[in-house]
Amino acid sequence: MQHIFNGLVSGSFLAMLALGLAVIFGMLGVVNFAHGAFYMLGAFGAYLLLTEWGVNYWVALAAVPVALGLFGALVERVLIRRLSALDPLYNFLLTFGLALLLQDLVRREYGVQSQPYTSPLTATVDFGLFTYPAYQVMVLGISLVVCLAVWLVLSKTRLGVIVRAATERPELTRALGIDVGRYVAPMFGFGVALAGFAGVLAAPMRAVNPLMGGDLIITVFAVVVIGGLGSIFGSVTAGFAIGLITALANLYVPTLSQTIVFILMAAVLLWRPAGLFGREEAFT
Amino acid sequence: MILSRLAGRPVLLAAGLITVLALPWLIYPPVAMDVLCWALFAVALDVLLGFTGLLSFGHAAFWGTAAYAAGLLAIHYSLPFPLAVLGAALAAAVLAVPIGFLSVRRTGIYFAMVTLAFAQMVYFLANQWSGLTGGENGLQGIPRELFGLDLSDPFFFYYYGLPLVLVGLWAAWRIVRSPFGRVLTAIRDNPARARALGYPVDRYKLLAFVLSAGLSGLAGGLYAISHGFASLQEVNWTTSGKVVIMVVLGGIGTLWGPGLGSLIMVQLNDFLSTAGFDGIDLVTGGVLILIVLLFRRGMWGTVVDLLARRAARRAEARAKAKAPAAEEPVPSGSA
């Protein structure tokens, strides 16, 4: 039971990162390689606010994603927009360069060893059969709420309708008098903010170091390939599912715990190349 | 196309050969050897990226597997090093069959993500299988063996390794220029049409992937022999990224460009680390961003472009001088 919880908690990070990746991909057609770096910046942002200015965790949880979101929107305006008309691989390469740059900047400043960040909640929750750290319970709850909220906004509100229309038929949406370009930078910023939010949530649980995002992003890539990158629902579901499966593998077949996500990806590619919830690519 | 004509020019070929032969005189010999290995690696990736239109972000899997395979063959069977390197190339090609089979089911950006993920899987396996690979410590003490010859001097070893690399480069050139390579280019430019013409597109892509992996393995195996060790660094995703940067910097789809790109990147790396500047990724990341924003054709592509444009302008001027009465401008044709 406790392992299932562990799996869901690590799955919630995967889900939030996959969600941000899917939102950005949906709006811009760009796979953001720097997503892991933004996640890392989120954790470092929380760490710096605490150690340099004594800003507590809860403030950081709100402030860091906003700051990163603005930074992300700026990145979109200054860099990514220039390549938007070209093959999306160029933006993949661009964000890869950005990831290297951001990661190395932080590493030069703080080294590769992990920085400690004390948990804001030290209590445990008693579930009868077992007790569980309250902080982890909170992370799970928050991420579920966030994923659900994003999904609701995209599927039920006018903003969501516009974003989805712009995703699927940008030309037609433009012809209907909607300024698609206006939504691009905020959506990119929002995706980045989600990564930063996940980073802040991760800071008290995971080792805060410059490399924390680089390895994670590859797992997230595998997750979105499994879920279907075009599908928000698929990405989030796959995120939680992979977290759970990895935790169970860790328990029963520990040798597979690191590789099972890639084995699953291989199976999905064989069985449903477009991903479990994905549709066939319209443009190949 | 002016590009291929230029690449076939004997003058250019001779210049390239002289550069390669003179390299250990010009720069520190072990670094020259690194340039050689990375150049072959980058050219191998260009066969896939430039001529088949598939961006593999997981070629470290093949370079790294070959590095381990060459090391194991040299350590446990004390094979002469060219045989160990060829065996390593074979191992990389064999690994590429299942990975390629699954990866070519997706294209474009997905292909990059899938190959990256599979390479990460290879990385975890190498880390876990520490009895074979030495795990975090890497595989150390790989001997350089060739019929009892003394290969310890890196200056001379460069020339022992060179033929292997030249064979690999020649193979890459042959692949690209062959009818098979033409089909690959057709698939890159218009997959639907290639399929309609009756070409089994996925099988062509898979073969290109396996050949590219084999050549990468040739490079990776030689790299491990020349360094005397193979580490997890070789299978890490940063290695995949590094070789992609070399290709993009030099110029995608030019074959010469990736060679040039690797020369510059390895030299830059060496220069920065001897200068005590600790921030190589900072520089390479910045370089990649600038290249992608400003010079998407890479260094080689940009220069060839400029030359072609100049030649076209001159031809136009000449044509005008010859027939001043003609109203129609002569089409330049080489864009």
TrEMBL record, chain A:
Bilayer topology annotation: Multi-pass membrane protein
Transmembrane segments: 12-35, 55-76, 88-106, 134-154, 183-204, 216-244, 251-271
UniProt keyword list: Amino-acid transport, Cell membrane, Membrane, Transmembrane, Transmembrane helix, Transport
CC per GO annotation: plasma membrane
Compartments in which it is found: Cell membrane
Pfam families membership: BPD_transp_2 (PF02653)
Main location: membrane
Gene Ontology molecular functions: transmembrane transporter activity
A GO BP entry: amino acid transport
Family to which this protein belongs: Belongs to the binding-protein-dependent transport system permease family. LivHM subfamily.
Record-given protein name: Branched-chain amino acid transport system permease protein
Organism: Phytomonospora endophytica
UniProtKB/TrEMBL annotation, chain B:
Protein's cellular compartments: Cell membrane
Gene Ontology, cellular component aspect: plasma membrane
InterPro entries per UniProt: ABC_transp_permease, LivM-like
Molecular function as annotated in GO: branched-chain amino acid transmembrane transporter activity
Record's bilayer topology term: Multi-pass membrane protein
Matching Pfam families: BPD_transp_2
Protein name: Branched-chain amino acid transport system permease protein
